[in-house]
Each structure stands twice: as structure tokens, then as C-alpha cells.
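Q: Here's a chain of 252 amino acids. Please give me its 3D structure as C-alpha cells.
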Amino acid sequence: FPDPTSLFLPGPSPSGKTFLRWKTLEVHCDSNQSIQHSPVSKSDSSKMPELSFDRLQLSDQEYCGFERRNFDRFVAREAVLDEEYWTAAWLRAEAHWESLAYMRHVDSYKRKYAEEEFYALKRRCVGQDGNSLKCFCFVAVKKEEKKVRRTVLSSVVGTLDLSIRQFLRGETYPGEVKRLSAVLASPEPFDAHKYAYVANVCVSKFARRKGIASNMLYLATDVATSAGMKQLFVHVNADNKPARDLYRKTGF
């Protein structure tokens, strides 16, 4: 598990305690926009795609995505390039193994973790993930500067996932299932069973304490609201105080 100062949230804490935080969203508008991603088949996971690690970050003119949020020297937006997905996966791998940097072969473990997360992330974003109806991978990148073109690797400093899901039968909160009574069951509109869920919040170690995580969360909230969601959930380790403070600050 990562250092408690990390905002990466891999699962339950060593004590077994997790908190589920959520907030009610006010619906401001609906959205008919959709983002197209190249499909990823299971057979693709046998080899890495051709990634160009010196690929330049997209300019503002080249990016034509869903929504973005400008703040300070950064921009939060949806990932578009495979290199952005890979860098997001690598940030998560580094955070996951951050407190275990002393281990032998840790770089090999991080590489394997990043590869698995890369393909899982791509599958999620094309709708191949259980009860997830749609998934967005957001990244925070450094703003464009005159006469400065950065590579993707040197530009991406944060990431998170936002998924639109539907409750499984018997769920009242994500992962919490209660037994149903057929007598008390009543039909509800399909949209009543949908919710938004945030996961994999991660900020590069050298870029923390700059408002990156909170602004990515604000963007996720805006996108969830635009998609018509009225509830937004996140799980957090019970002993991860910085992350808990972050979620309280952003309205959970």
C-alpha cells in the first residue's frame, strides 16, 4: 500500500476499514456529447502498443475533448492519447509501490502493474467493465507555454477515473448489498439506478499540494452532473487522512 500521504486509493486499509463517501449532485444540464475511444480487445494485452515516449503533448488547439478545467499552471481534462493512458497507469503503479521502493525488483513489479492497469483502463473506457456503463480517464497536464513543447511523459501530473454505473440488484451503496423483499420491491425509472463513481485518484509525488487532485475532482463532478447523475461516490482508506480531508474539502 502507498504512503499515507499518497492520494492513490488501491483498496481497503491494512486494518480492513474503508469509508464510503458520497455527495448529492445538483443537475445543471444534460449532455448528448460522447467521446470515442479505440477499442481494446483481450488479445491486445499480449503485447504493448507502439508507444512513442518522446511524443509531444497535445496543444490546446489539437485537443477537442469533452470538458476541461483550467487552474493555476495546469489543465484537467480527459485522456486522449495512448501515451496519456500509459502515463496515467504508470503514475498509479508508482504510487502503489511508493512505500515499498526498497524492495528488490520493484521496477519490474511497477512495470507489470502499469501494463495491467493500462489495458484495464482502456477496457473500462470502452465499456467492457461489469456494471460500468461509461468510464472516463481524466489527467492533469501542465499548461501550454510559449515556445515550450513538452512530452506527454513530462506533462501529465495527475489522474483519476470517473465511471457511470448502475446499482446491482440489492445494492444500496457501491459494494453494499442488502437482501431484497419481493413484496416490497417497486418498479423505478432506469435512471434511478445509475450513479457516478470516482477511483484511482493519483498525483505525481513532485506535484502534490498544488490543487491538482481537488480540481480533477471538481471536473469529475461537473461531468457527472452533465451526465444526469445525482450521486457521486468514492471509497477511501480509513487511515488515509490527507485523502479524507481532500474529499471533505470537495464536498463529499
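Q: Can you summarize the key feature?
A: DSSP finds five helices and nine strands in the chain.
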